[in-house]
Prior knowledge:
Blueprint: H1 3-13, E1 15-19, H2 27-34, E2 40-47, E3 54-62, H3 66-72, E4 78-79, E5 82-83, E6 85-88
Antiparallel strand pairs: 1-3, 1-6, 2-3, 4-5
Amino acid sequence: MGIRKVATAAKALNRVFVGNLPWTISNRELKQYFSQFGLVSQVNVVFDKKNGFSKGYGFVQFAKKESIQLLSETPNHKLEGNVLTIQPATF
Length: 91
């Protein structure tokens, strides 16, 4: 396995998929919410290239894997009334 694949796999361990995002949530707001669980190293709300609106999902990457544990100990995550779907990112 090459160094690049190892680095990518290591990053994926600290990364989660976040679904059911309100269309009004930006990268800044997503980072602000998830910062309560630890240092957020990267966020990415996915936007439609044609219309510029959020597709309703994104990704959050934490600096430490302990943040994922803290995140999973909280039963419900809500932003602007939407209950978020959170799963480990597979890529």
